[in-house]
Amino acid sequence: MMMDIGLVVFGGLSWAMATFLVAAGLTLIFGILHILNFAHGGFFMVGAYLAWAMIEALGGGVSIWTYIAVALVSGAVVGALGVLVDVTIFRRLRDVEDAYALIATYALLMVCIGAIELIWGLDFRAIMPPEALNSALFIGDLIAPTFTIFIIVCGVVVYVALEVFMARTETGKLVRIVAHDAWMARLLGLDVTRIYLITVVISFALAGLAGGLLVANQGLSPELGGVFLLQAFGVVIVGGMGSIRGAFLAALLLGQIESIGGMLFPNYPGIFYLVALAGLLLIRPQGLLTKGRTEWV
């Protein structure tokens, strides 16, 4: 019985932190630009393929520090792509109806998928985790893969880093001001366009970083982005649109529910997640933490 509880909790944490790594950038960009960025899953996938290509170029077997460095480089490259996307697309979407923004970002997702297929083809690709993460820890009767523990730690680190950035840094405070009232921020002389750009770059960098960190033990294919995007959207919506803390709590909650469902009904993966998502939205449609349109802390 204790082993079953441990498996449920550990499995739920694994799902939660992997999903939060993807959802972090998604909720950040909505909190500032109020755009539901369907292309986020595509740029997550771009980050994963970039990481795969770099690791393959290094011979496949890399150390844990090289693996982390590759993930950071993937994040930096995708963040740089965010500059191009903001200048060419997002700036044109700030004063249009939400439906047009959804169509535009969905089209951008299709572009990402097409680029992946053109460059890397349709074949499935995979790499093994670094040797230091390719083992398991035995905690009582629980067998905990070290790579899964690594992902859980990465998810917590990203969450803490975002909380510190938003609450303690000058740039983070400016981002919160713009999120609360961009019109007033302009009257106060703030460069709102620059703050928007910073937010987009961070959001895209988080997508690329998530792809780099999660690339090991993933079957890479052009459909990868859609799978994680669905989970990430659920976490963002349940947590409260624009709430980083809410997304983190929602990931933990939905992760445990999904883990319980996977144990009770292994032939129906994902069904508990969808049922829980619908139920939570009926009970609290505004999300777990959001009081208004944006609630950062």
Automatic annotation (TrEMBL):
InterPro entries: ABC_transp_permease (IPR001851), BCAA_transport_permease (IPR052157). CDD domains: TM_PBP1_LivH_like. Keywords: Amino-acid transport, Cell membrane, Membrane, Transmembrane, Transmembrane helix, Transport. One of its GO terms (biological process) is amino acid transport. It is a multi-pass membrane protein. One of its GO terms (molecular function) is transmembrane transporter activity. Its main location: membrane. It holds the Pfam family BPD_transp_2. It is found in: Cell membrane. One of its GO terms (cellular component) is plasma membrane. The chain crosses the membrane at residues 6-31, 38-58, 64-87, 99-122, 142-166, 195-216, 228-253, 265-283. PANTHER family: ABC TRANSPORTER ATP-BINDING PROTEIN (PTHR11795:SF442), BRANCHED-CHAIN AMINO ACID TRANSPORT SYSTEM PERMEASE PROTEIN LIVH (PTHR11795). Belongs to the binding-protein-dependent transport system permease family. LivHM subfamily. This is Amino acid/amide ABC transporter membrane protein 1, HAAT family. It comes from Salinihabitans flavidus.
